[in-house]
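Message: I would love a firmer grasp of how sequence relates to backbone shape in proteins. Thank you; the sequence and its tokens follow:
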Amino acid sequence: MTDPDKLAQHPVDGADGAPSVDEVGHDGTPRHAAAPRGEKQGGAGAFLRETAIILVSALVLSLIVKTFLVQAFFIPSGSMHDTLIENDRILVNKLAPGPFDIHRGDIVVFKDPDHWLGDETDDEPTGEVSKGVRKLLTFVGLYPEDAGEHLVKRVIGLPGDHVACKGAGQPITVNGVALDEPYLADGAEPSEFAFDVVVPAGNMWVMGDNRQHSADSRWHQGEPGGGSVPIADVVGVAFVIVWPVDHWTILRNPGSTFADVPAAS
């Protein structure tokens, strides 16, 4: 007579390691239990979760880069010919001003200081969905900022600098030193009219490379600041043209132009 206690001590599988009865098909071959239904769904869910995490992480990283390091802008006008032309995409270093200083000759993007742009607007998308998508992409740094609130010019004078020109055909002088400006647009002259200013503390004097087509500091001398721009309004210093590909260029500071200019007295 079989001892029921001894049966309880045997494993479910046969003593020789063969599969248990409910793991063997009618034809006598082993069969494998189907994967639980939840495991299949879990695989798809895990993929979706990982994809979402990657996308969110990329957006957060892009936002951090845009906020603290680098930001993209596009050029809407010809005021910086031939250095920058319409629809160029540029990147600006947001660590200047800040950890890095702004220098004479730098190309800077700055907020409109006193309605310099007037009522100019860029070509906005017409659909509400398109506007929303564009604003979102711009906010996280995946679409370049337009010039609706920003301008791009070259720094000519820093706080305390004496910047002047005697008129058409004459060079710009900074602290008494005449500038040789190789970056000017083809056919452009340094200034078509005379001016003589001392840049206030905390400000800078900016001019476009295409002087006869640039409403820069010279044209705003009767406004608060005398045409100068607060350095606090600077978003960053442009350092590269990234688009279009055939216009890809590193934007270097023309150090030799200002090498002989003494410090402001």
User: Anything to note?
Assistant: DSSP finds four helices and twelve strands in the chain. The longest strand covers residues 234-243. The chain has a mean pLDDT of 80. The longest helix spans residues 37-68.
